[in-house]
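Quick one, tokens below:
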């Protein structure tokens, strides 16, 4: 399969100056393709290299939360203030004239809200009001390298709308409170180790730190600059459920294969089949996954997924409601990470793919073109 798509991927990478990328494809039985293109520090990219997968952490932590629900330790409609009282004290920020005003919660934040991005929590680089609070010095942004960004107010009352944000970071805190162990330990013991994902952790100390690939910033002129030193690694926390995992393509293929297998891993059932099905089921009703504008051009470019295609949210996954021509089937799950890592899971056609590079801003045209070429090549090879 890889030889059929290699030329197109190399051309897309060369056109945009993408130095390296890793690609993988799996079905429910086994890996169909796992290959690398390009060099890291003058050496070929290989199976042992580690990537920052950022928001591709969210599906993993969503599985962790669903495990606790299946065991009876959590409930989707449970007020989360019962577990973390802080979640009963947060407020909602509104535009008021030329300024901002805060109003109290009108209903409780539930686990359902947090898992589906309907809680009202937002990212500062995607939402104007949270971005303004950060600019005013009243709030820390997501790039603060600590947990202070969790102090953000909501941008609407829980359940009122859909807004991509920091809800899964709060889910991570809930998992810690309920399980009695830190998030890294819980995920290691209940997901990563049973799936033989030995290159994945919230702590770089668990991995080969020297294998962590460099991070680049793509300028407006297409030139790449190394910004690795601006992104400190995490060893002993905080472990952030919304974006803290280190991993690679080989390991993420194992996670996706478990979902294609209805929650079954090589060493036992990770998640009940009906819980896996719920991840691929619309959980936001008539609400829509929206275009995400950018308020920090270093971190993100504004992006809307497949304009004209209705998008919903399951648990940990964006879902396309209709077939996308030449690509994934209706009901497929997908998402991405801040450093331009991408994946899709098409259960109808029993195929999943993942691509990883390491650059900012997310959704820049170079990274999107490489991923688009990859996904189209996968479905062309499978047709």
């Amino acid at each position: 399969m890889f030889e059929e798509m290699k030329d197109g991927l190399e051309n897309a990478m060369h056109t945009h100056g993408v130095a390296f990328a890793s690609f993988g494809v799996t079905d429910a039985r086994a890996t169909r393709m796992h290959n690398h293109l390009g060099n890291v520090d003058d050496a070929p990219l290989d199976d042992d290299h580690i990537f920052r997968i950022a928001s591709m952490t969210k599906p993993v932590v969503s599985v962790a939360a669903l495990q606790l629900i299946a065991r009876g330790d959590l409930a989707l409609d449970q007020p989360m203030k019962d577990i973390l009282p802080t979640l009963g004290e947060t407020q909602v920020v509104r535009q008021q004239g030329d300024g901002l005003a805060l109003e109290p919660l009108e209903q409780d934040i539930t686990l359902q809200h947090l898992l589906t991005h309907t809680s009202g929590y937002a990212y500062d680089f995607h939402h104007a009001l949270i971005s303004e609070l950060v600019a005013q010095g009243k709030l820390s942004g997501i790039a603060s390298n600590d947990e202070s960004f969790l102090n953000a107010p909501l941008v609407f009352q829980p359940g009122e709308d859909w807004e991509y944000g920091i809800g899964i970071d709060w889910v991570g805190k809930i998992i810690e409170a309920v399980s009695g162990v830190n998030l890294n330990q819980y995920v290691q013991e209940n997901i990563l180790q049973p799936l033989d994902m030995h290159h994945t952790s919230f702590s770089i100390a668990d991995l080969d730190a020297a294998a962590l690939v460099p991070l680049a910033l793509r300028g407006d002129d297409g030139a790449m600059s190394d910004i690795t030193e601006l992104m400190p690694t995490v060893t002993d926390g905080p472990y952030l459920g919304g974006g803290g995992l280190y991993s690679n393509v080989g390991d993420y293929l194992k996670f996706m294969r478990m979902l294609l297998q209805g929650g079954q891993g090589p060493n036992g059932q990770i998640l009940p089949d009906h819980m896996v099905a719920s991840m691929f089921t619309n959980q936001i009703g008539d609400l829509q996954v929206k275009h995400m504008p950018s308020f920090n051009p270093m971190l993100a470019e504004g992006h809307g997924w497949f304009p004209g295609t209705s998008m919903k949210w399951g648990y940990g996954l964006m879902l396309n409601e209709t077939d996308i021509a030449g690509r994934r089937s209706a009901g497929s799950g997908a998402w991405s990470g801040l450093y331009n890592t991408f994946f899709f899971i098409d259960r109808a056609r029993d195929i999943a793919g993942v691509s990883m590079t390491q650059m900012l801003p997310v959704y820049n045209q170079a990274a999107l073109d490489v991923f688009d070429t990859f996904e189209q090549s996968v479905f062309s090879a499978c047709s």
